[in-house]
Structures are given as structure tokens and as C-alpha cells.
Design goal:
Elements: E1 2-15, E2 18-31, E3 35-39, H1 46-54, E4 61-70, E5 73-74, H2 80-86, E6 91-94, H3 98-101, H4 108-115, H5 123-136, H6 142-145, H7 155-166, E7 173-177, H8 185-202, E8 205-210, H9 213-219, E9 222-227, E10 230-236, H10 237-242, H11 247-254, E11 310-311
Parallel strand pairs: 3-8, 3-9, 6-7, 7-8
Antiparallel strand pairs: 1-2, 1-4, 4-5, 9-10, 10-11
Length: 318
């Protein structure tokens, strides 16, 4: 059973140069109790996807077509108040910058109380729940931590507090928007392990957004690869890392510095530039940068193949 189903989602932004097609026919599922990673270069549409799910698109953005199914709800059809009733309760988010997520002038305890405003518990029970959640994310002396302010914690601890706040109401879906990017390598590993443990304890599903292939490989059960607003490949983590089928996925894996066997002055890159999303090519979105290019790529958009491991490429689609 799926917690989230995204079906042929199309999102555009009104710009001075014309409509910008930020997402095009995006489709994938987030099954129960699984961690699904979304990976791609900056500008591939990851943040737009999150904002579309949460109903937080900018004023010049709109969902043109498609559905975002969450339980019995199509999120694209809900009004602001209906979305507000789901956010924080059934769908929670951990953002990249914990200082942007935590209010610097309100104590951690008060912020954790505010999150529980829909609960019928008394203040003492809510505080006890907050302490329990801080202990679960390994904050030392959680009782006294409630009276402290965000600036009194390190970056890693602030991110743990943000995770605790996101999971406070035990949501069905946690959206993690590059939560390890601002952390050093040691804290990054610890945060990954923490997320894995909490996901198993709470039983929620996780949509994990990242550009870091190592983190995706370590944390996620399934992977969705995005390029220029399209899903170009999706499958299990093992399938995607051991048998990449789309040329963009293949090149993306080759560009990972961790995959280099020896010292080098020049890291591998993907030649070319991302196309202008206001004037999308008629054929394959990756054709101009592809090392498997064929004539059909310029004129015919490739379909996503059938089966569990899918890639949007003429060379792999029957």
C-alpha cells in the first residue's frame, strides 16, 4: 500500500519570459514503511516537488494537471485550511537549515508545545512527550533542553531538535529536504542512522530529498532520479546503483567523487547545460547532453518502460 502517489504532475511558474515548466509528468509512489530518495542536480525540480506536495508553491506557481494522492485526499484539490490540518499532523517536514526552521527567540520547549496545539493532552503531558522525543533523538539532558534557545545548541543538535519536532505527532509521511547538507561528515552519518532508527520505530514513510548520492545509497530503499523537472529513472536503491539504465543516472554516478579510484586533477562532469524550461525540446529532455544520442531523441519524447525498474530513454524502453 502507498502512503503517497504522485500521478502525472505538471507544475508551471509564470515568468516575464513566459511559462516555466518546472515539473512535467512526474509520477512515482512512496510505499508504506519505506524511505524513497529523490536525487538530481540543483534546479531539477526537487524543491518544487516538495512545495507542490505541501501546498506551498509561490504565488506565481500552479499545478496545471496531475494528482497527489495522500490517503483519501488529492492534495492538489485541497484548500489552504484543509492543507493546514494535514501539515504537521499527517505530513511533516525537516528542512535543510535548522536555524530557518527554529524560531531563535522562543525556547525549544515552547516551540514543541506549539506543535502539539491540536492535541487534547494537558501542558504537563505535552512537556513529557517533548522530553521523550528529545531523548529519542539523543539530546543530552532533555529536561533542561526545553528551557534553552536554539542558539545554545550546535548545528547537529539543532537538526536533531528539528527532526524531533517533525516526528512529534508521528506523521504518516516525513519529507526530509536535504537535512544533512549543512552538517559535517561525522554528523551526517549520525543523522542518517538516527533517521533510520526513528523511521523504524514510528513506522512512517520518508521522502528524502538530496543531491548526495552517498547519503541516498546509505539511507533509502527506493530512488527517483530527476532531471530538468522530469523523472528519468526510478527503482530500488540496489537496482539503480548496480544497473543504472538512463544515461543521466549513469553520468551522475560517474561524477560522484567517492567513486574515483585514484588521485586526479579533473573530476568527471556532464558536458552541456540544462535546457531552458520555458522552451522545452520536443523530444528527450536530456538529448543535448547524452552520450547515447540517436536521431529519434530530438523529435519523440521517450516513454517510461514497464516494470519495477524504469527509465525514460529510447535505448531502454521496449
Amino acid at each position: 500500500m502507498n502512503v503517497l502517489e504522485i500521478q502525472d504532475l505538471n507544475v508551471t511558474f509564470a515568468t516575464e519570459g513566459g511559462p516555466l515548466h518546472a515539473l512535467r509528468n512526474v509520477s512515482f509512489d512512496v510505499p508504506e514503511h519505506r524511505i524513497v530518495g529523490v536525487v538530481g542536480e540543483s534546479g531539477c525540480g526537487k524543491s518544487t516537488l516538495i512545495n507542490a506536495i505541501l501546498g506551498l508553491l509561490a504565488d506565481n506557481g500552479q499545478v496545471d494537471s496531475g494528482r497527489i494522492l495522500f490517503g483519501d485526499h488529492d492534495l492538489t484539490r485541497l484548500g489552504p485550511l484543509e492543507m493546514q490540518s494535514l501539515r504537521g499532523l499527517r505530513i511533516s517536514t525537516v528542512f535543510q537549515d535548522p536555524m530557518g526552521a527554529l524560531n531563535p527567540v522562543i525556547s525549544v520547549g515552547r516551540q514543541m508545545l506549539h506543535i502539539q496545539y491540536r492535541s487534547d493532552l494537558g501542558r504537563s503531558e505535552k512537556n513529557a512527550r517533548s522530553v521523550k522525543m528529545l531523548r529519542r533523538v539523543r539530546i543530552p539532558d532533555p529536561e533542561s533542553a526545553l528551557d534553552r534557545y536554539p542558539h545554545e545548541f550546535s548545528g547537529g543538535m539543532k537538526q536533531r531538535i528539528a527532526i524531533a519536532m517533525a516526528l512529534m505527532m508521528e506523521p504518516a509521511l516525513l519529507i526530509a529536504d536535504e537535512p544533512t547538507t549543512a552538517l559535517d561528515a561525522t554528523l551526517e552519518v549520525a543523522t542518517i542512522e538516527l533517521l533510520q532508527d526513528l523511521q523504524a520505530q514510528i513506522g512512517c514513510s520518508v521522502l528524502f530529498i538530496s543531491h548526495h548520492l552517498g547519503v541516498i545509497a546509505e539511507l533509502c530503499d527506493d530512488v527517483v532520479v530527476m532531471y530538468a523537472g522530469e523523472v528519468v529513472e526510478r527503482g530500488t536503491t540496489r537496482e539503480l546503483f548496480h544497473d543504472p539504465r538512463h544515461p543521466y543516472t549513469e553520468r551522475l554516478l560517474r561524477c560522484d567523487p567517492a567513486g574515483q579510484s585514484g588521485r586526479t586533477r579533473h573530476l568527471p562532469t556532464i558536458p552541456g547545460e540544462v535546457p531552458d524550461l520555458r522552451v522545452r525540446p520536443a523530444g528527450c529532455i536530456f538529448a543535448a547532453r547524452c552520450h547515447r544520442y540517436e536521431g529519434i531523441c530530438d523529435t519523440v519524447p521517450p516513454e517510461v518502460g514497464a516494470g519495477g525498474h524504469r527509465a525514460r530513454c529510447h535505448r531502454v524502453t521496449p
